[in-house]
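Input/output pair, single chain:
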Amino acid sequence: MRILIATIATVAAAGAALAQDVKGSRDHPLVPRYEGSQIIRYQTEDFTDYRLMNAPARHYGGLAKNIDSTLPLEGKLTRITYRGPADRSSLEVFRNYEQALKAVGFQTVFACAKEECGGRKFNHAVSPQQAYTSFGEFHAEQRYVAARLARPEGDVYVSLYVVLNKSGGGPDKDRPMIQLDVIELKKMEERMVVAKAADMQREIGAEGRVAIYGILFDFDKDTLRPDSRPQLEEIAKLLKNAPALKVLIVGHTDAKGAMDYNQKLSERRARSVVEALVRDYGIGRGRQTPVGVGMSAPVATNRTDDGRAKNRRVELVDLGG
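Output:
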């Protein structure tokens, strides 16, 4: 088994590999590297959403067109791209990783190889955008496994994708390329305070709209979470205190995912807010119009966790009249 493990016998080999890694990168503590590999790309996010492929790809157009073949996850994401050593097959590398994952308790969620994954369609869905030249179109020897490790502190999922790069030149030529994504499930830290009715009324009076962050949904869902109730109560109080006020209830998402999918999700979420205000607080349906605009009206960058959190919101917009 050629996966590197932190033992005295392999320290020298690991040190040699690490010396070639991109600055600031490191192996994930749960998944060792294949011997002789080097990290060529490395990314971490403390909290983000992730689509884990758990079925073959059925449509051309990348991940956005194969949402029905994914499992939605949220948590800490570590993405590591390795360039494997020369003269090793994708199968040999893949089997080593399978054994290493099994050794620490991971259970397979889905696995496939070559055309059974969906061929080129799967390759386009799984290949990391920033490393596409290392993975894209090399589906003849592609191999994939999604696996789960159950832990009391939160489950961990792994997406492992291995191809044999057959490009015309460069350092990746004839090398196995390894994309390892590790998702450690955890809940987002709630930092948004509940907007009070009086504050919302003042902002609507001054700006014609107010952004609200206390309306909460689970990832990829349109069902209101129970902890949305304090904010719903304040919205209901606002509408009862201002009986002439009619509003658009506008759902917004961040830029993760396809535009048309996010637009429909944001509209469903806006409708959920309207239904809750009608059902639970007696607010007239005619005073509320649900609208979903998806990712099309950001208030912050979508390149950071904090920016995406600000873009995921509900707005009340005064209809006037």
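The first helix runs from residue 11 to 18. Confidence is low (pLDDT under 50) at residues 5-19.
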